Amino acid sequence: MTKPALTLYVAAPRGFCAGVDRAIKIVELAIEKWGAPVYVRHEIVHNKYVVDGLRELGAVFVEELDECPDDRPVIFSAHGVPKAVPAEAAKREMLFVDATCPLVSKVHIEAERHHANGLQMVMIGHEGHPETVGTMGQLPDGEVILVETVADVVTVEPRDPERLAFITQTTLSVDDTADIVSALQARFPAIVGPHKEDICYATTNRQEAVKALAPKVDALLVIGAPNSSNSKRLVEVGRTAGCGYAQLVQRATEIDWRALDGIKSVGLTAGASAPEVLVNEVIDAFRERYDVTVELIETAKERVEFKVPRVLREPAA
C-alpha cells in the first residue's frame, strides 16, 4: 500500500538549550563523583524522559530540602530556588550544587541590584512556576509584585510608583511579554527595565523558528512536557502565527493520528528541555505512516555553552 506524501518541516533551533544541557551534566557528574544516591530538589528540568533517565542513574527527585538527608549531595534545579533554600542547606552543612541556569541567575542579580537601589520589583511570570518562585524568593516578602497578564497591570499597587523596576521569567512568550511591558510603561512611566531583556536567547530563538514554519503547515507538534513553560509557549506562538492545529506531545506515543488524517504538512519542534532523541522518535513514527520529506527551517544558530561548577570539574577528595 502506497503511503501518503507528507512534508515534515523541522524547526531549528529546537530542543536542549545551554542551561538545560548544563543542568543535566551537573546531575550526571555529581553521581559519577559522589556515587548514588544524589538528591535533586524539584525536577532538574521539566522533561519526564530526562528525569526518568537520571533516576535510573541514581538521582532521587524531591520537592523540598527537608526530604533530603544531611549526608548526601543535593542539587538545585535549573529553574532556581529562593534564597532560603541554599541558606538552609548551608545551615545543615549539606554538600549542595546549584544548577540554576546562568540566565536565570542573571535575573536574580538584577532583582537584588534594583532592591539595593530602593526599587520595588514587578515580576512578569506564571504564578507557582518554580522559576518565578525562585526569583521572587531572592527578595524579602512584599518586594516583588507578580503580574501574569496585561489585565493584572491595572491592579498593581506599588509602594511608590516612581520607584519601580520590572523583571521577567526567562521562558515567556516574547510577544505577550512585550504587551505587558508596554502596559507597565504606560501606567508607570518611571519604571526601570533590564539592560538586556530577561527572556532568554533559547526561548526567543525557538519562538522565532515556530513563527517561520507555522504559516507553512497544516499542523504543528511541539515535543515537551505539560509543566514546561517554554514548550507550552511554543504551542501558543504556533497558533497565533497561523497554524490552526498545534499540540503539545511528550513523545510519539501521544500523537493523535486521527486528528492528522488527510494533512499534507506538519511542523515539528521541541521545547528547551526536550532531548533530540524524542524528535527522532517522532520523525520515525511519521515515516512509518507517510512518505516523508524532511525540510529544515533554520532561523538562527546557537553556540552558547555554560560551564559546570568548579566543584564538579575537580577530582574527588
Question: How does this structure look, described?
Answer:
There is one protein chain. The protein starts with a strand and ends with a helix. 37% of the residues lie in helices and 19% in strands. Helix 5 (130-136) links the parallel strand 6 and strand 7 (144-147). Helix 8 (201-213) runs parallel beside helix 9 (229-240). The chain is built from eleven helices and twelve strands. The longest helix has 17 residues, at 18-34. The protein is an alpha/beta fold. It folds into three domains: 5-16 and 201-298, 4-hydroxy-3-methylbut-2-enyl diphosphate reductase, catalytic domain (Cobalt-precorrin-4 Transmethylase, domain 1, 3-Layer(aba) Sandwich), CATH 3.40.1010; 18-101, Rossmann fold (3-Layer(aba) Sandwich); 103-187, 4-hydroxy-3-methylbut-2-enyl diphosphate reductase, catalytic domain (Cobalt-precorrin-4 Transmethylase, domain 1). It has helices at residues 18-34, 48-57, 84-91, 102-116, 130-136, 150-153, 174-187, 201-213, 229-240, 276-289, 310-313; strands spanning 5-12, 38-41, 59-62, 74-76, 96-98, 120-124, 144-147, 164-168, 219-223, 246-249, 265-270, 291-298. The mean pLDDT is 96. The strands form three sheets. The protein has a five-stranded parallel beta sheet with strand order 10-9-11-1-12, with helices on both faces. Strands 3-2-4-5 form a four-stranded parallel beta sheet, sandwiched between helices. It is flat, with a radius of gyration of 21 Å. It is an enzyme of class 1 (oxidoreductase).
